[in-house]
Amino acid sequence: MAWDGSTRRSRLPKNWPRIRRRIIRRDGGVCVALYSTGARCELPGTDVDHIVPGDDHTEANLQLLCTWHHLRKSSTEGNAARLRPSVHRPPSTHPALDD
């Protein structure tokens, strides 16, 4: 499961349910994602998403997304993180490319 080993829930503020309700109300209960045509998604918003990943729980950094758009955004962010060089390990080189 995606949440296995995650500390995300424990890092949410104690008033997260209240913040979540405010975001749902603010965004009208509808996903705020835009399609490439510029049209707004019309599916019900189910997931309150952090626009910039991290622990900034301010309303300006939160948006309501449908499950499909939230999974798509999270997948994109996960792939980008996976491809980003680790600060803990030196980049590996191929022996044939070493001088």
Automatic annotation (TrEMBL):
Matches recorded under SMART domains: HNHc
Highest taxon listed in the record's lineage: Bacteria
Protein name (database record): 5-methylcytosine-specific restriction endonuclease McrA
Gene3D superfamilies referenced in this protein's UniProt entry, alphabetically: 1.10.30.50
CDD domains listed in its UniProt record: HNHc (cd00085)
A GO term, aspect molecular function: endonuclease activity
Lineage of origin: Bacteria, Bacillati, Actinomycetota, Actinomycetes, Kitasatosporales
Keyword Nuclease part of the UniProt annotation: yes
